[in-house]
Amino acid sequence: xxxxxxxxxxxxxxxxxxxxxxxxxxxxxxxxxxxxxxxxxxxxxxxxxxxxxxxxxxxxxxxxxxxxxxxxxxxxxxxxxxxxxxxxxxxxxxxxxxxxxxxxxxxxxxxxxxxxxxxxxxxxxxxxxxxxxxxxxxxxxxxxxxxxxxxxxxxxxxxxxxxxxxxxxxxxxxxxxxxxxxxxxxxxxxxxxxxxxxxxxxxxxxxxxxxxxxxxxxxxxxxxxxxxxxxxxxxxxxxxxxxxxxxxxxxxxxxxxxxxxxxxxxxxxxxxxxxxxxxxxxxxxxxxxxxxxxxxxxxxxxxxxxxxxxxxxxxxxxxxxxxxxxxxxxxxxxxxxxxxxxxxxxxxxxxxxxxxxxxxxxxxxxxxxxxxxxxxxxxxxxxxxxxxxxxxxxxxxxxxxxxxxxxxxxxxxxxxxxxxxxxxxxxxxxxxxxxxxxxxxxxxxxxxxxxxxxxxxxxxxxxxxxxxxxxxxxxxxxxxxxxxxxxxxxxxxxxxxxxxxxxxxxxxxxxxxxxxxxxxxxxxxxxxxxxxxxxxxxxxxxxxxxxxxxxxxxxxxxxxxxxxxxxxxxxxxxxxxxxxxxxxxxxxxxxxxxxxxxxxxxxxxxxxxxxxxxxxxxxxxxxxxxxxxxxxxxxxxxxxxxxxxxxxxxxxxxxxxxxxxxxxxxxxxxxxxxxxxxxxxxxxxxxxxxxxxxxxxxxxxxxxxxxxxxxxxxxxxxxxxxxxxxxxxxxxxxxxxxxxxxxxxxxxxxxxxxxxxxxxxxxxxxxxxxxxxxxxxxxxxxxxxxxxxxxxxxxxxxxxxxxxxxxxxxxxxxxxxxxxxxxxxxxxxxxxxxxxxxxxxxxxxxxxxxxxxxxxxxxxxxxxxxxxxxxxxxxxxxxxxxxxxxxxxxxxxxxxxxxxxxxxxxxxxxxxxxxxxxxxxxxxx
Length: 925
Description:
Layout: H1 3-6, H2 11-16, E1 19-23, E2 27-31, E3 37-41, H3 42-51, E4 54-56, H4 59-66, E5 74-75, H5 76-83, H6 93-100, H7 109-126, H8 138-147, H9 153-160, H10 193-204, H11 212-222, E6 235-241, H12 247-262, E7 266-270, H13 273-282, H14 290-296, E8 297-299, H15 309-316, H16 322-337, H17 352-356, H18 358-362, H19 383-393, E9 396-400, H20 401-410, E10 412-414, E11 420-422, E12 431-434, H21 440-447, E13 450-453, H22 454-465, H23 476-481, H24 489-501, H25 510-516, H26 522-537, E14 547-549, H27 558-589, H28 596-627, E15 637-646, E16 649-659, H29 663-671, E17 676-681, H30 694-705, E18 715-719, H31 725-728, E19 729-734, H32 742-756, E20 760-763, H33 767-783, E21 788-790, H34 798-807, E22 812-815, H35 817-821, E23 832-835, H36 845-854, H37 857-873, E24 883-887, E25 906-909, H38 911-923
Helix pairs in contact: 5-7, 6-7, 8-9, 8-16, 10-11, 10-12, 11-12, 20-21, 20-29, 24-27, 25-26, 26-27, 27-28, 32-33, 32-38
């Protein structure tokens, strides 16, 4: 045993004299290992933790509440991530208790402190227990992290008491994938109603209650897999299914059958990564064997979600700060045992981003398209490549709308006249199911937009020219192509021309030069004029938020700057187009000489160059044509200038173009390329109070999902929820308070939350209002024993906040639209939903154009009703649920109330009465 290891004391002795610290919003407690409790205000706590070592849970949360965290603090969450890599744990003491099967007596801070003490003891004991399941790299990573100053390092090394510390890096110990022949195209056998219902019965179990609405839904979903009759006219099913019908298993049943019968793949797309995770859990019913499930069901996300092993290696071998080395150690532990290397919403501990900084995590993924594919030493072990290959042979691929849209956008070129040209990709599916289909419009809006901004321009420059002023890897196009075009003078000449002409794009430091009035090059000169126009035509100098203005008429000098940039970008497009063509030509001419790795690299790079060239040619150049006066504005698009701010600080400026109706390119690239598509949601239609007309209500669903752009009409059906909403819920509109007064607003939230005894969700239309209410709520709710969490305040991502809210039954959560849309909390953990005011759409230039196209005030009402419907729909998820929905806006128009289920009475009452009725209704047994 080495002297250094002998210097580490036995960890159990250290833990026997280490207490636990639990910090609330205004007070905290210290609990000794013997159970003695001391309650202190934050000031006294800060003085104590400077000199002593304490067990804590969630370092960023404790730091935010106390304003500091002592250097000697031992975060039990970090120990859990090290000892049990790739295992789920809520970042709370009770989350540790659930993962470690520690009994919980109550929800007091004292009990939380005792949980931390017991959790630390158990985790330290696990690493020396016989049959410990995560031994690889344990000692080596502990030594590395201890050397970097990790507070748990000495205790772990003291427990292991071993001097055998050799080099160990995770990329040397991951399994490799093997290339396989591409699968043949699927057959077109339909799925019959009876066999789909039989599969549904298998999924829900023989003893489960058979719900007629779920069976009707399954029969409808089976129609998605009917063979199409006409080219470019797929079978499209629009299915509105009320909450509680069981739509997930309802569409999994026919989808899994079709995949089995036809040797094909069905892509099931959801809106958020959190919903992907929930859907993945449902598939345990279909594939109870985890080995079979791993083969049959694959989660797919954008490549920016996955760990890049080359980035990990380069960061691990670079001189980074101590905290970065600790993070690298935890990431290596996780990567060895991860299911798929997904760092965003997968089995990676999401709270580590807040612990060590999201910027550090982002360096571990490929966010700038710098992948070198087969030239990478880790290519055969790459998580992204594994996922892609598994999805080709899987029966079900669980994707998200963003990925599906991006794939569609990258294979579609939008020409100058607005025509959509789609390239055929044999790897893309022929059958889709879009859950949460009411979000397709917004997803398409993001995917098919064009942004000519400083940041996008800089990203393209870096992709072509590499990191010009950085030691970090950013090899650029030359580094990725160099050895592939050795001896090819034509290709090398084209490459050098691309690199040279890319100098027209913004360079590092562009934003500072714009502010200083010293832009350099065509793009920066153009952006400087854009910024000038934004400030000239808005009150931007005094604003905290982002600002925007129309691009026409331009300020003096802008038209000329646009023309110069237009000429420069055309000079960039020409060699990019010729270079990608040259690389594809090499595939043909040198087919007998190139090995598989070289062919893959050439093809991938040719496609990457083409995609980026198309962004410039079909996105940026047509926009600049308008500004330069060479063409008229296209009525299918909305153009505007925008200066983006974050926390009052400028972060980006640019020229933006969006489709007025983004469902048009979605229909052209996704729906028409498939043979069958199901679009489903609980909120597809907009139910109107006046002139109740099903055809009109379905028309809004067809327009927003793209089905209106197909010749053949979709199959459509609406199935009502099985819940008794009039009996299970109450809706109150408070009509006697000033919603603009933060003190009145906070008082309303406080008293309503107390009346419900927690289980309350507070929704806000503005972050500033959320922050103001939180400051006024934290103390009173802490005194009442009701934990309060908040988006934009707690250093915890939204998905984890929702998980915490679901688990902690009497907690309260404040959030904005991301919380509203990603919330699925059945049971008593959510029994009250309070909205600060009517969630009207933001009056942006984009919204102004759509409002004009889609019906003026009726369009505003449509969007608002759908948002209210979504918010109310969070409340009742089971037959046993009870819930109260409160709107703190007395000016809520009656025409919006059709967002709520028929038969539910909406009462306009005073705040005091709403509080009393909330308490009475929720206390009824």
